[in-house]
């Protein structure tokens, strides 16, 4: 047997595990399960597991997830939201993206306010939260030191995002991209999948929009840039709750999803 292989499957520790494994997944659920087994980036594996072992004092009684964090939301969503990576004591702790950290608090509150989430808070995987027509994912599925993945780590993880978007392709109409890192990670994924990008390539900014088309021209998907709801951006008011709601509402509008204009109990 070839080194690093088990049968005809690569070992999860090999660099090419995502590239070989992701395209074989037939459903979003299968992809999510495969993502959670990945150990392809040694630095990220060491960091996420160290954070899960040492823990933060406030979470000393938690059993941390400590693995790659899959996407979250229905597999036929017309709207995708793409962030950066799990937080060491957020998604890496709870096992669900944008759950258990200030960024998630801001994002899910905004989604609830406009009617795309069943509740305004996200605390753990079994808290009952549902998303309506929205799938949230990231270009890097492991918590990185300092919230800064390397370009090699981003590129190694890219096949997971590429195939997730391919599985969403039949229903996908719009993508809200939170932060410059996610924007720069997404454009090569779309180009590699045969989507025609505008020339020159669109530059990230809050509220920036671009339209990408399939090679045959039959379908188009909107890309909408938005500042990441990081603690720093929210504290400095670089991004306000109203700004976040507005960019998410714009994504929902072009994706054909109904939204609410104010706060209150949303519905599917």
From TrEMBL:
Which family, according to UniProt?
A: Belongs to the uracil-DNA glycosylase (UDG) superfamily. Type 5 (UDGb) family.
Which top-level group of life is the source organism from? Bacteria
Protein keywords: 4Fe-4S, DNA damage, DNA repair, Hydrolase, Iron, Iron-sulfur, Metal-binding
Q: Coiled-coil region(s) at which residues?
A: none
CDD domains the record matches: UDG-F5_TTUDGB_like
Q: Which residues cross the membrane?
A: none
List each copy of the Uracil-DNA glycosylase-like domain by range.
70-248
Q: What is this protein called?
A: Type-5 uracil-DNA glycosylase
The cross-references to InterPro entries, in alphabetical order and at most eight, read: UDG_Type-4/5 (IPR051536), UdgB-like (IPR044147), Uracil-DNA_glycosylase-like (IPR005122), Uracil-DNA_glycosylase-like_sf (IPR036895)
